[in-house]
Amino acid sequence: MRKLLLLTTVILVGLVFIARLFYLQVYGGYDYNIFEDTAIKPEYTYPKRGYVYDRNGKLLVANQPSYDVMVIPREVEPLDSLELVEFCNLLKITKEDYDKKLERAKNYSPRLPSPFVPQLSKSDYAVLQEKMRKYTGFYIQKRSLRSYQTTIGANVLGDIGEVNRSIIEKQPYYKLGDLIGKQGVEKTYEETLRGIKGIKFIQKDRFNKNIGPYKEGKFDTLPKPGKDITITIDSQLQAYGELLMTNKRGGIVAIEPSSGEILAMVSGPSYNPNLLVGRDRSKNFNKLYRDSIAKPLFDRGLQAMYPPGSPFKTLNALIALQEGVVSTEDRFSCNMGYRYGNRKMGCHAHKSPVNMNIGIYESCNAYFANVYRRIMDKYDSPAEGMDNWSKHIKSFGLGDYLNNDLSVGQPGKVPTAATYDRGYGKNKWYTTFTISNAIGQGEVLATPIQLANMAAAIGNRGYYYTPHIIKNIEGDTIPLKFTTPKYTTIDKKHFEPVVQGMHDVYNKGTAKNLKVNGIDICGKTGTAENFAIIDSIKTQLTDHSIFVAFAPKDNPKIAIAVFIENGYFGSRFAGRMASLMIEYYLRGEITRKDMESFVLRYSLEHEYRKPYSGEPFGINRQTTLEAISEEEYENLLNLKAEIPKS
Amino acid sequence: MLRENQRRFKFDWITIILFLLLVGFGYVNILSASHDGEVTSYFNMSELYGKQLVFIGLTFVIILLILSLEAKFYERFSSIIYLVAILSLVGLFIFGKDVNGARSWYGIGSMTIQPSEFAKFATALAVAKYISDIQTNMKTLKDQIRVAAIIFIPALLILLQNDAGSTIVYLAFFFVFYREGLQQIYLIVVISLILLAVLSLKFGILATTVVALIALTVRYFFRKKKRASKLQYILVLFIAVGFAYGVKLFYEHGLQTHQQNRISLWLRLEKDPVKLEQMRKAEAYNLIQSEEAISSGGLTGKGFFEGTRTTGKFVPEQETDYIFSTVGEEWGFLGSSAVVLLFVFLIIRILYLAEAQKSQFSRVYGYGVASILFVHFTINIGMVMGLIPTVGIPLPFFSYGGSGLWGFTILLFIFIKLDSNKINEW
């Protein structure tokens, strides 16, 4: 027995040791991650972020260097009070800020670097740089910030900002303090623009001193510069559109029908993209973000869904021809509206009876109510008719995301039989229930970009290219989906009468005052009723002004949708703006100075104040125009003169 | 010629191969832990790995010397060797030089010699000599006190030189005494005292008293012979509680702060996060770095010369006491387990050989060798992995240092020599 004491103890100790080793090295799940190794410090070299050019090669977005003060909390050595005051002064923060920021960094990770004071100015950096080595645990990380060469297109270009923790968790490429595209093309083309950062792994000793590259730089990578991109925007047209949008809220989207390239994408109110650069980014962003009334970050060209109103009638005409339920010469009478049952859909005064051509240019509600009923009644049940109609509408890119390369969007809405089955019960509804769809009210919703795309499809006589913003990627091709035409369900031959009708809108219809000599524009006015909840009462506000157009009539070069909130009838603001945009794009100058001065001179701010001012107000006919001061007007004209030619 | 060959084959080659593997692998890890970037020459004498290579070279000279001496020499001269060792320890108080607060070195030129490393085999020889004397009976108190004195003298001298770690090694001889007839009661007392000490530090006097009371009550009712009276049991209880109280007092007032903190860290006594943070930077720093380095090795390790923490010298004293952390980081679980197994095999092999000795002197000495290696192995690797409190003693054959390597080599090879001679014993 005595012989066994040491023997068993030795074996026991051996087993305990192996168990402990197993626990530490294998069971502990110690997965070697070079980024977690205290002995290795990765140093990043950030590549140049790709530049952004407009369709004419004008530089819109470039870079500027920026310097972040980073901190690794566990390496920070306490500063004496004098040093602390000096350090805080250099960083332009208070002592409380210092403690708070350090605490926050420690909470994130004592081991990993966190940004301490991001985006120093060049002069602050110069002063700080010399003294930096006094502050152990802090270092300066060079990055590149955006430098906007323009004041326009904030909603198009977007911005970059620091990644948040949820992004880091999903995409380990990003480390705290890295910048990422937050909106616009910066977001959608993030990976193209950013390139790939280079990493050097530095072997540290326990005093945190560099002792050379880890494994002779075996794992080091060189930064891969981001690619420059050319976007489809015509910056001159964009600038003009933003100018026209001054003092108004709404969206303009202009598309080149032959390619689907977005020429301009205006959202009002807008802001200067330079606000979202540098140390003030979060402050300015919050200001824009919190403005829940004007909503400058809400891209009205892409995200605002409205009932499309009269422009939608053109589609009903096309469907009726395709289905063979009317001919262009079938006439319907209109006596100030269309009666069904004991209800009536009103219309304005015009000659009667009307054929398709008159129906379109006079925007006759009764005509389209009849057409719509014929489309529906072709089938045995309203449900079949509805689904067939819905299929045609959707072929124009309505009712769904366009699957484009824009960072935001909305699907809009196109009802199907199922929509009404849900509302009324299966087979418990009739065509008269859905008759508002005939004139683009009812259950249909669309965004301005969808309407612009619809105009492009009509202009192309039956097909469209997915609207997109990318024109060219340095050393790369743009996705195939943007260069493949998408055909609508309407045969080419049926488009001519509708196009003619839209042309006559300009010749003798609702937009005859918007004519531009020498340019054959086809268009369609629209208005959309809208409501707001004021003091918990649903209140009708002044109509939205809508206009869609394309020009020239044959082989159109531009298709456009303009949407002005509370702008009243379609030709009043939206129509004028559409005509101006078309002329500006095709001609490079404006001959209809009267239209331009109307749009620039009149502000809609008083309309937007109505729901909030508490004063009683009426809608539509009781609207007045509010002119801006002569000084402001001059200012706008100067701005127009300053738009750089491209 | 034929007789010469036969003699050579009597050496236990298994032990020698285990020894060579440990020394060789030890050198590999010292190379890794001490190199600074490029290794230009393995014989660079300004680097630790260069020196260690020389120490290893000299080791073979020492081995040849030991093996060429007559086996009987060690038994006959054990008293004189012991005396020389004691004198060399005493001499430190006059001629020694301080390194890291311990006065345990002789400086000869640029070389230093640590006599405590050599005192181990000398003590083992002396203990073997005394116990193997025909007149010695380990069951008598007189002999127990005398043999205790043999180990107590060098232990005390080393303790006075402020080298507590090396002192603890002398507890190894308990295994020897127990093997050679020390009563069962001593084992029970030793285990009880260890338990009492840990209990009182971790859970306090009251809890310790309760545990001791329960243990003694159970023992009282299940006792086989009604020899001891109730009174004696109560006396034992009082002694136990007194001891527990003494340990607590000694911990609080008798220990230096850093020793106190090491124990506090081991038993996780400190709850104050501020103080813990301080300890992490002071007493626990080595341990944390070493544990992290070992853990980061994973299953297969990062590879020779590839340990990031080793290269960055994150673990202080990594060539010496913390050499095992290099093994852990660069060779992983497989390499570290292999080292643990090599030690276990070596110790078991020595035990096996010791039991097979015909002379009691050889057996006791062999047991001494096994016990000393075992204590070093347990304390060093246990410490590096955080299983026992920090005690600074080297890992035999592995840690950097000439004195240590030679001390262990002499210790081991005297036994190999004795073992090779067993056929001549009767």
Explain how this protein is built:
The complex is a heterodimer of chains A (646) and B (426). Chain A is an alpha+beta fold. In chain A, strands 2, 3, 4, 5, 10 and 16 form a 6-stranded mixed sheet that branches. Chain A has a 5-stranded antiparallel sheet with strand order 12-11-20-19-18. Chain A has a 3-stranded antiparallel sheet with strand order 1-8-9, with no helix packed on it. In chain A, 45% of the residues are buried. Chain B has a domain at 77-182. Chain B has 18 helices and 3 strands. Chain B has helices spanning 2-8, 13-34, 48-68, 71-76, 78-95, 115-132, 141-160, 164-168, 173-179, 184-221, 230-254, 257-266, 273-281, 285-296, 308-311, 323-355, 360-384, 402-420; strands at 97-99, 102-108, 111-113. At the A-B interface, α1 of A face α9, α14, α15, α16 and α17 of B.
Q: Give the CA-based shape of chain A.
A: elongated
What's the average pLDDT of chain B? 89
CATH class of the largest domain in chain A: Alpha Beta
Largest sheet of chain A: 6 strands, mixed
The main sheet of chain B comes to: 3 strands, antiparallel
Put simply, the count of helices of chain A is: 22
Q: What's the CATH H-level superfamily name of the largest domain in chain A?
A: DD-peptidase/beta-lactamase superfamily
| Order of strands in the sheet with most strands of chain B | 1-2-3
Q: Measured on Cα atoms, how large is the radius of gyration of chain B? A: 23 Å
Query: What is the straight-line distance between the termini of chain B?
Result: 25 Å
